[in-house]
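The freezer alarm interrupted the setup, so I double-checked each line after restarting. Inputs confirmed:
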Amino acid sequence: HRRLPAVIPTPPVSASPFPNPKSQYCCLSRNFSAALTPLLPVQLPSRMETHLWYVVPDEVKSAPLLSKYMELLPQSERDHVLGFRGDQLQKSALLARTLVRTTIARYQVDGHLDPRSLRFKRNIHGKPEVEWETKDGFCPPPLQFNISHTSSLVACGVTMNSLIGIDVEEKRRRTKNNILAFAKRYFTAHEVEHLNAIPDSELQQQEFIKLWTLKEAYVKALGKGFSSSPFNTFTIRVNTAAQESFCLPLNQASSGIAVETLDSPQNLTNNWQFALLELMGSHYVAICLERQETGGAGKAFPIKLTARKTIPSVEDELVSGTNAVVTIGGSVTQF
Amino acid sequence: MAAASASSFTSLKSRPAPGLATIAAVKSGAPLSFSFRRPVPAVSRLRISCAAKPETVEKVAKIVKKQLALPAETPVTGDSKFAALGADSLDTVEIVMGLEEEFHISVEEDSAQSIATVQDAADLIEELVQKK
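Predicted 3D structure, all chains:
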């Protein structure tokens, strides 16, 4: 197993840049490099909001920083990270655990800000969840999260209450197998037709990736494991007319996305809403959310999305509403 | 699914419940120990399996290396975990598809989900080939 280089302790900062150093630094270890800033706390998303956080592994180059991140993890997670073969895989695995811990820590549930103190467990179906401390009088928030990563992007979605699944993929990801052969084997007939109707092979490849991420996001949101929802038992329908828009101008709701399960084909499963984003021009991010409220006649309110790019404890950047995050499917307002 | 075995590689394997293979755990960013599976009492999933022939393991390793674009000299053995080699959920499905084509078998989604290592794949292949 390759070990990441040990951090070289740096002398403590003598003058704190923050007005109230005690509250900001109370959870930091003495060895934190002077270059690290404490995690900026963030308000929990409201019931209607979705927060998307992401890290670009290529932008995280500092070995001491990666060592710091390792220190945030319990031994079991460190072992898991080191079990991956090669630096790149270890790095994205490390960043995935770091992102989920630091992101949840920012919400300062019950006043805590220490990513190291978070515990995770699985629900009855195996989906990862936070295991909150059961102190007297403490009612854990219904915080939901889901993570996804490729070697070039690590992302975490957070909501309050609404089940969430997210999946990320490089736009240019190519399947080794022929797309239609693959789709015939694993997708539904409608989806095969949808792909087959696209004459341009490049566009067809991209549409395949979009479908794949949407299907993954749906199953992850369901939280019951992939075997309970094999990919050929549900169809993702993409409507080019903005059928699901709700009082939005057309340019904000490019297409409606819905899921239809094969055992009830006439009923579009209205419990779930989708967003498909193009991130940094290079990745697709599919988000699937449990619908909380409908806006009458079964229409959904758009997904209210806040997207932030982060290098945990180094910098955060609000990117929603910029061209780093383009809505290409579903009904989304970004702010 | 139990098979008596004279092979020196007989192993008593405790199989996880059908559910997401650890490969997709990579995709979700969760550690292997948090892989997305339904927990099931170990007793009901115990399985005595005869380890697959080395040639089968070799063929599987070759298909895996091809899918993941690993250099030919990358050490891939029966113990190698797909996820640790860098396979995400799409890779896994593609690998299974490649195995289906190579061995002329059909792998049910449930069985595909329980493949975590090269050995798992090879063992499953030999079971399915035997059943034909």
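Quick read of the result. The mean pLDDT of chain A is 83.
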